[in-house]
Structure formats: structure tokens, C-alpha cells
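Blinded run. Sample ID left blank on purpose so nobody reads anything into the name before looking at the predicted structure. Input follows.
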Amino acid sequence: AEDLHIEAALELADRIITDDEDRYGAAVQREKAGEEARNGAQRAYERADEIQKKRVELQTRSAYAMELEQKKARQIRLKEQAEARQPELERLKTEIALIHSQMDEYHRLDELESRRKAAETEAGQASEAARQAEDALTRIEQEKQALTQEAESLKDAGERHHAAELTLQNLQEEGKRLDMLSARVAQQREADAALKRAADARREAESCEQAAREKLDALRKELEALGNVELAVTQKQNLLNETRTEAKALEEQRKLLDRLLAAREDYRAAQKVFRQSSMDAESALKKATQLRRQYNDNIAGILAKSMEEGQPCPVCGSVHHPHPAAMTAEISLAVVEQAEDEERAAREKANGNAAICERKRTEGTALREQVAALIPNVPDTQWAEHVRSAVLKNAEQAKKQAEDLKQAEGNRMRAETLSAAVSLAEKAWQSAQNLKQQRDVDKQTAIQRAESAKAETEKAAEGLMPEGWTENALVERADENRRKQSGQREKMEKAEADRNRMKAIQTRLDALEAQKEEQLAAKNRHAEKAVEAQASRKEKQEQIETIRRRLAFKTAAEAAKAMEQKKNDGDAIRKAMDDASIQLQETEREGAGLQAVIARLNDELCDAPQSDLAQLEQEKNNANAALQQAAKERENIYARMKSNQRQQENLHRRAADAVRLEREYRMMQDVAATAAGKMTGQARISLEAYVQTAYFDRIIRHANLRLLHMSRGQYELKRRQVKEGGTQGEVGLDLDVMDHYNGSVRDVGTLSGGEGFLAALSLALGMSDTIQASAASAVRLDTMFVDEGFGSLSGSFLELAMGELMDTAENGHRLIGIISHVEDVKGRLPRRIEVTKQPAGGSVAVIR
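Blinded prediction complete.
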């Protein structure tokens, strides 16, 4: 009945929405009609406004037409005034023609004036030239007189030149002999100096030979003191090479130790990742367990609703029900399955991280064994310090050996340098000996040259210098000879200059005579030319005066200027007449155009109606108001339509809820069939067995989190599944174990004693975790006891098992008691009760 009611409501809602859409379409059409009416009123108002504007334009143009008529009358008067100046224009034309006809005579007048000025200039120039020629004749005569007197004073220049020439020759001969003697004196002086230098060089060579011998002896002694430097260098180099080889080995140890430390860090990081992934898997398991428990509790709650006191429970068989299960928050099977899928993915991830952790541990163990082989007899806690100390000791030893090698190489280089220096010193000593012998020969040669130079000097002085003369006397005698030669040369030069001057005077006198005749002829020629130019100037002046009496202007330029002015006046009169005609024509054309516009406006306004603009504007405003009202009505209908659509959507959601309830109802049917063991395609087990397997799966999930950690990701427990279609006798509580190292699955009974103990411990802890996590359970496991089994565990597995128990005690807030005789277990317990058996019977317990 509820479904039929919802369907009827949906049908009604659909009809309402259809009616709303029809009303909304009609409102839209009314709005469009209002918009068209508003546009028509707007166009009528705009036409009336345009007609009004044309009437105003007609009035404006009519007033301007009257102004144009007045302007036309003024322009007619101006044209008449311009045409009245026509006689003046004719007069100007006549005067211009007269001036133009006389322009040839004006040009002839200008030409005569130019010729007159040229004749006047030529006469002045000829007179000036005649005067200059007269002045030149006077200067020539004066110069001739002065030159004649100077020539008289220079008549004996030839005799003086000859006497000075003979005296100079004698002095030059004596000067040559003095120069030769001076050269011999210089040679003797140079020979004496060379002799002194040779003696000094011989003494210096002897000193150098002695110094070279002493230096050679000292170098030989120092070279012998250094001994066998090559052997010392080889020994030092071998020691340093051994130390460097040891340094490389230490560096390999350091690198291997760094790798070991890095591997340990990687292992710790992998452990951290594994613990985190285990915690994530445990969280996922808790979430999946809680969701599955809530789902099962909901199923139990559904079953509990039908239980009655005195009737047996289908799960436990009890006839009393003091605490029946109650339904909690609603949860679907898909959510439970998704949480279980996430738990499986988290568990697989934890398994992978466990394998990685084991691989990192194996790598670290291998590296530790390598380091232990390289550093034997040293505890692993002291490896880093041992390597560091060895590296420092090796570095210090290498530094000292390098310094020793450097010193040995320095000695070797010093020996090589000394050896080369000894060789050079031997050569230097031999060269010094050779130089000393050469200096002895040079000194003997210098003695011979000095004696020869002295003999040649005495021979050159015979007949020239007095007995006992000195070098200073020779210098004074040579200076005196040079002064006398200079005096005679000056006399010769003066006489030669006087002779040349006589020749120049004669040449100049001849030239002056020729210039005198030339200037005299020029004077006469210029005087005649001046007379002719004066006559021509007078003739041209008379012709000019005759022509000027017939003309109105003095020059052709003045006539041309006057003619140009008259032309300008005539042009101004004609321009005034033309401007008046043009302006009148333009005004007439503008008036005609204006009249055409006025006629067109009259035609357009002839049939135009008289409209009331105010009324048309009111009609336009009313149309606008009607359009706004239609738009508002459309918006109201649209809002109501949207509200109805939302209600329609709400009804559809309610219909969907009804479908969901139907699906849940069918799920409850499946639960009931499952509880009764009648579900097609599923294992046929009782509800009690199903609940047991569900709780057992929770315990296994919690136990696997513990077992994966304690077995380093190797083992994982799995419940053996009941085959589909199996009988109700197959409970499904058998266990298998999955080995992640080889991918096999086998019966849990195949585990070794230690592995079996870890599996049993994991199941115990898993059951505890499951009970603690169950909200429907009233049982709390705050205390646990583990009895023996630790003796079957190896050292590493024992450490993992104890760590798991300690973590459970600390983080799970539980008290865990361990009963064991294993010493390693005793040492790990912070508080314990030690029980000792007495020989006489009984026992003693001590709390520690």
C-alpha cells in the first residue's frame, strides 16, 4: 500500500510540473507581447519627436534665408563700387604701355652711364700709372748712384783674396803635421793604458784562478759528506708505499664498516616499517573484526528478538536469556567485506615488509661476518674506534715518512746540484788557468806596443817641436795653428764676398738701365691714355643729359619699379571686382540650396500629424510598466515551478529509500536461511558452527599479526575452508600454516617445536585480543600465564617472543606471568618469583 501511495504521489507531482511548465510558457508569451507593445510605443514616440525636430529646423533655416537676402544686397553694392573703378584701371594700362615703350631708351641711358663711369675710371687709372712710372724713374736713378760709389770701394778685393790663400796653405801644411803628431801621442797614451790594463787583467786572472780552485775543493768536500743519497731515497719510498697500502686496507675496512652501519640503519628502518605495517594490519584487523562483529551482532540481535524465556537458544541451547544480544548501528555486508579486503591487503603488505626486514637482517649479518674477519680479536662494539685509531696512526706515520722522503729527496737533489756544480767548478778552474796564461801573453804584447809607439812619436816631433816638449805644448801649438787658419779663412771669405759683390753691382746697374728705359716709355704711354679717356667721358656725359631730358625717370630700374607698382594697383582693382562677383555667386548658390531644403521640409511637414509628445511618452511608460509586470509574473511562476520540482525530487528519493528497505528485507531473508543451514550454494553448517568459525577467524587474524612479527614474516595461520555443499558435520576449525619463504601451505602440525610454540603463543594472544575487542563480551582477560615452551626457541626467536610479550604487557595493559626454567628468559623479566626445591621436601619462593 505504501508503494502504491508513493507511485500516486509521483504521478501527481509529474502532472503538477507539467501544468507549471504550461503556465510558464504562457507567461513567457505574455512577456514577449508586452515587449512588442513597449517597442511600438517607443517607435511612435521617436517618430513624433523626429517631426518636432524637423519643424524646429524649418524655422531656423527660414530665419537664416532672410539673413542671406540681406547679405546678398550688401554684396551687390560692393560689386557696383568695384566696377566704378574701371576708368582708373584704363589709365593705369595707358601709363604702363608708355613706360614699356620707353624701356629701350632707359636701357641705352644705363649703358651710356656705365661707359661714362668706365672712361672716368680708366682716365684715373692712366694718370695714376704715369705718376707711378715717374716715381720709379726717380728710385732707379738714386740706386744707380749708390751702387757706383760702393763699387769704387771694392776694387782691391782680388789682391786681398790671393794673399790670404797663400798664407792659409802654409798654415794647413803645418796643421797636418801637428795632427799626425797628436795621433802618435794618442797612440802612445793608448799603448801605455793598454799595458796597465794587461797588468791588471793578469793580476785579476791569477785571483780568479785561486778562487775557482778553492770553490772546487769546498764543493767536493760537501758532496762527499752527503754519502749514498739514492739508497736513502729508495728506502724511504718503500716505507711510505707500505704505509699507503695499509691506508688503503684501512679505508676498505672503514667503507665496509660504514656499509655495516648503513645496513643496521636499513634494518632498523625496515623493522620500523614492518612494525608500522603490522600496526596498520592490526588496526585494519580490528576495524574488520569490529565491523564483522557488529554485522554478526546485528544478525544475533535479529535472532534474539524472536527468543522467549524457557525456549532454547539456537546458538548456545540455553533456555535462559539474561543478556540477549542487541542490534547496534546498521551496517551492510559490502562494508564488512570491503574492510576485510583492506585487512588482507594490509596483512600482505606486512608480510612483504617482514620479508624485506629478514633480507636486511641477512645482509647485515653477512657484512658483520666480513668485518669480523678483517678485524679479528676486537669486540664489535670497539670496531669503529679501532678503525678510527688505526687510520689516525697510519696518517701520522704516513705524514712522518713523507717528510723523511721529502728530506731524502732534497738531499738527492742537493747531491745532483753539487755534482753539477763540481763539474762546472772544474771547468771554471781550467778556464781560469787558461785565462791566466792568456793574460801573461797579452801583457808582453802590450809592452812591445808601448815601446814602438814611443819611438814613432819622437820621430814625428823632429823639426816641429822644440827639445823637451810636452803634450800640453803640442795642444797649445795646434790650437794656435787652428786660430791662424780660421783668421786667414775669414780674410779669404771677406775678399771672395767683395768680389761677388762687385759682380752683383755690375749686374744690377745693367738691369737698372733697362728698367729706366722701360719706365720712361710707360710714363709716356699712360699720359696719352689718360687724355683719350677724359675726352670719351665728356662725350658720354653730353649724350646722357640729352636723353634724360626726354624721359620721366633717371634709370631703367626706377622705370621698371614704377611700372610694376602700376601693375599691382591694376591687379588689386581687378581682384576686388572678381572677389565681389564670386562672393555674390556663392551667396546666390547658398540661398538656392537653402530654399531647396526649406521646400523639402515644407513638403515633409505638409501632411505630418500634430502629436502630443507628453501623451506618447506616457503611453511608452505604461508599456514599460506592463512589460515589467509580465516579467515579474513569469519569475513567480518559474520560482513555483522550481519548488514543485524539488518536491518531486524528494518523492523520488523516498521511492529510492523504499527500494533500499526492500533490499535489506531480502538480506534478512538470506540471514535467516543461512542460520537455518538452507542457503543455496553455501556450506551447510549450523549457526553455532558458523558463529564459532566467525570468532575463530577473528582470533586467527589477531594471531597472524603476532606470528608474522615473531617469525620475521615467514609464517601465517589459515583456517581450512569447508567445501561448498559440505555436511553440517564439517565444523571448519582445522588450521594450516602458510610459509611465505617458499609459498607452500601445510598442516600446522608439521611445524617444529619452537615454531609450534610461537604459533600457540600467537593464538593465545590473538584470542586475548579478540575477547578484549568484543563489545558484546562481558569477559575481560587482564592476566595471562604462559607455561614453558621457551626452551625450544633459538636465540633470535626467543628475543622476538619475549619482545612480543613485553609489548603486549606494556601497550595492552595486561599482567603476563611466565613459567620457565630457561636462564635467558629469567634475565629478561623485570619482576619474578624464583621457586627453589628443598632437599627435605617442599620449596622456597623468593620475589625479586
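Unblinding after everyone has recorded impressions. Confidence is low (pLDDT under 50) at residues 724-730.
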